[in-house]
Amino acid sequence: MSEAKDGELRALQAALAAEHAAVYGYGVVGGRIDEERRAEARAAYDGHRARRDALVREVRALGAEPVAAAAGYALPFPVTDPETAVRLAAELEERVAGVYSDLVRAADGGRRGSAAAALREAAVRAARWRGRSVAFPGLAERAGVTSAPATPTA
Asked: Which helix (H) or strand (E) holds 15?
């Protein structure tokens, strides 16, 4: 595999890992979110599941084994009420945007377009959860956040 394709596969796997973490995280969000935002959380959960499934197919199409979801993930902070659930949802979206930003840089053609669409969706959801946006969604060095997915725990 060429160096460019190897980099693209690594970025795909990182996006898949972030989607696994987001699906897990939205399970936590759904358990603590207020009723009036539950539909929004459910839509995000469904969107991340769909992206995760699409990434699994893409990785397999490249002849690689998709990275598996961890049994559990360490959350960046305790989620104990609706306010912290909203904060977690925003954090999940910012982290997902970061890995899709990396995939946009690594991919080309249709895959780059799909990654850009996923980045845009994550940025819009993050802005909705936070109540504000950032100038360069997905670019952690501009936003002052890390783009690493939640940490798996065994």
From this structure: helix 3-32
What's the mean pLDDT in 36-43? 97
- Which CA distances in Å does 30 have to 26, 75, 100, 121, 148? 6, 14, 23, 19, 22
* Rounded Cα gap, residues 146 and 154, in angstroms: 22
CB crowding 112-136: b at 16 or more within 10 Å, else e? eebbbebbebbbebbbbbbeeebee
| pLDDT above 90: residue 74 | yes
Mean pLDDT along residues 60-84: 97
pLDDT at residue 126 above 50?
Answer: yes
**What is the maximal distance between C-alpha atoms in the chain?**
49
Average pLDDT over residues 69-97: 97
Separation between Cα atoms, residue 79 and residue 59, nearest integer Å? 32
CB-facing half-sphere around the CA of 75: CA atoms within 13 A: 17
3-class DSSP state of 34? coil
